[in-house]
Amino acid sequence: MNSKHRSLKDLIFDNRFLNELPADPETGNFPRQVTGACYSKVNPTPVRAPQLVSYAKEVAERLDLDRESCKSDQFKQVFSGNEQLDGMQPYAQCYGGHQFGNWAGQLGDGRAINLGEVLNNKGEHWTLQLKGAGLTPYSRTADGLAVLRSSVREFLCSEAMFHLGVPTTRALSLILTGEEVVRDMFYDGRPKTEPGAVVCRVAPSFTRFGHFEIFAAQGNLDLLKQFVDFTIRNDFPHLGKPCKETYLKWFTEVCEKTAEMIVHWQRVGFVHGVMNTDNMSILGLTIDYGPYGWLEDYNPGWTPNTTDATNRRYRYGQQPQIAHWNLGQLANAIYPLIEEVEPLQEALKHYEQYFNQHWLETVARKLGLTNYRTGLDDDLFNELFLIMQLVETDMTIFFRKLAQVDCLDQSLNQATDDQLIKPLIDAYYDPENMMDSFKARTSNWIRNYIKRVREDGSDVQTRREMMDSVNPKYVFRNYLAQLAIDKAEEGDFSMVNELLELFRRPYDEHPDQEHYAVKRPDWARQRAGCSMLSCSS
Ligand code: AMP
Ligand code: MG
Q1: Active site residue 278
Q2: Is 153 a domain residue?
Q3: With a 6 A CB cut-off, is 273 part of the ligand 1 pocket?
Q4: Cα 253 vs. chain centroid, distance in angstroms?
Q5: Is the minimum distance from the CB of 144 to ligand 1 under 6 angstroms?
Q6: What whole-number distance in Å separates Cα of residue 508 and Cα of residue 518?
Q7: Given the CA of residue 136, which atom of ligand 1 is nearest to it?
Q8: Residue 3 — very low, low, confident or very high, per pLDDT cuts 50/70/90?
Q9: In this structure, are residues 386 and 375 in contact, taking their beta carbons and an 8 Å threshold?
Q10: Which own/partner pairs from 388-391 qualify as long-range (CB within 8 Å, at least 24 positions apart)?
Q11: Would you say residue 508 lies in a domain?
């Protein structure tokens, strides 16, 4: 055992959020409006029979926690909320948010309870947060709990995202509580009992845009300033001493980090599903895995969230604009500290340029091109995303297959339309019924692509490696989540653990795991939980 590893009792806590920010003086656990405070102290609700489903070893490592500890009885007691370690000081945070475009007032950690901040050997702080650990003062009319279904989804997806290179909160553990939780999954009057579960999430901080919004909405500028200063000091220490100039640098950096996160989402085909401002992390981390989904056929209009079916506000193709809108709400919230509209607007404009530049460079890499040529490549890129929408095309498979095409092979110069499309055929959901006009347009694109690759000049191997390092082979396909959940609900955790392992290296081929890289099967097309999800979790 490496000496840097610690057992549970040796973890060191340094709870800055709790020590440096004002607490709600009320300590009773009942729903209320909280003013003048950033959090309320509250203990997790004990559970009957905690059972470990899975834990992420890399996350344990980040905390310096040794492997044996993760398998201990104490681990499942602590991370289900039954036991507290020395140094833990549980609390729920107060925040607000815009939900589906409307100010929703106070929200807060309604079912998340922070245990404290682990200080690891590298001097990093990692906040531990239990999701589904019972009622808090912010639970409003809900129960503070989470079910196994949504917890499997959060646990596996956040880890998968991390290994895909997407900024995200992490997950240490997934534990069944032994409690039953009632959920009306589609709000249609058919409630069902489901197994309860708790995920321990881990992040440098869980600060959301909504934190700043609530203090601004309450007109509490002292607290707003205190919270901004706290955030800069702890989450953005490189920005230096808080002052007006620093606030602007900070906001600009939040814009950039948010843009980078969205570029990654678009790159891998992740649709968050509920991009409310309370679900936007100030660190640009993907946070709050609810009714998210993964693009199967490339469709910018798709959202997995049935609660958003009418307006599809949070559809794949609109995520970049929604992030911009959300940043606008954050700008409004911090305006009183800056009192100048123009520089905030500049930063918002910068978001758009920064996003576009990074996105186009990312598309170039997805296509194996060494750079994006401003203006010159736009037709090639735009046409690609248009033809991918003409027939159902699996985005993930498409890019992996495209990497296999040897563009330098001179025999391609005489290839027919069918011959050019053949290497990509696995990406199509209905290859038998492709119209000739579609084939002609697609092969025309392929010919232009081949020409562009040849101009670019990189060799076959280099191009392939570049493509395979940004186009994952394995993503958390919606139907895979459902299969893992079905098994887990029967007490079989093997698929959860198998996927966790596979998703540690999503860009590798894994020839023995090909069955996890296949298109959505027909049974999953309309099945609840696969292509349709609600906020009920
Ligand atoms: P979400 O849409 O999941 O981001 O949740 C919005 C708000 O509802 C947050 O304040 C959550 O803490 C709260 N919330 C969601 N589900 C529950 C639940 N089962 N019990 C208590 N609060 C919840
Ligand atoms: Mg949320």
Answers
A1: yes
A2: yes
A3: no
A4: 19
A5: yes
A6: 15
A7: 21
A8: low
A9: no
A10: 388/298, 389/298, 389/299, 389/300, 390/438, 390/441, 391/428, 391/429, 391/430, 391/434, 391/438
A11: no
